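FORM 12-B: Structure-to-Sequence Request
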């Protein structure tokens, strides 16, 4: 499967009432993350997944996701050590597209990112007013890289975007 995704920082003060939208708490850890391959384990809404992502080519990369037993996911998460991200994901439909808004917690408290999946890299779409800066190609905002940050390193990134 091919994933084409754009990612943005948001203006928190312009967000709509998020209670109106479906949401899931996510816990995801990274077993491997390098320039060629990312292997992630995720729990979301009582389900668990193993995801393998290939090398990013601009906004596009191969992605394979498989549902796995929760008990396997919990054991795999232990293997991730500190390379774990916690967040709540809100699903916000706009103009026949689904925006995924991630509000991070723990060491990334204060970080909010929005993502949209597209059919083509050059696809046109409506951006809501709360969209700020695009960070699709900024590797520091890849979840796999965010997961590897210490609390002090995360504070530096959060201070830059405030």
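FORM 12-B RESPONSE
SEQUENCE OUT:
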């Amino acid at each position: 499967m091919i994933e084409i995704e754009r990612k943005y920082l948001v203006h928190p003060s312009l967000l709509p009432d998020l209670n109106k939208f479906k949401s899931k708490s996510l816990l995801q850890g990274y077993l491997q993350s390098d320039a060629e391959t990312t292997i992630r384990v995720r729990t979301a809404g009582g389900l668990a997944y193993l995801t393998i992502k290939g090398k990013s080519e601009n906004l596009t990369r191969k992605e394979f996701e498989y549902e796995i037993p929760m008990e396997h996911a919990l054991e795999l998460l232990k293997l991730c050590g500190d390379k774990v991200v916690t967040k709540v994901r809100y699903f916000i439909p706009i103009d026949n597209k689904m925006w995924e808004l991630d509000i991070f917690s723990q060491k990334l408290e204060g970080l909010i990112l929005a993502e949209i999946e597209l059919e083509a890299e050059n696809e046109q779409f409506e951006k809501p007013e709360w969209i700020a800066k695009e960070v699709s190609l900024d590797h520091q905002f890849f979840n796999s890289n965010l997961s590897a940050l210490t609390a002090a390193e995360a504070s530096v990134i959060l201070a830059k975007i405030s």
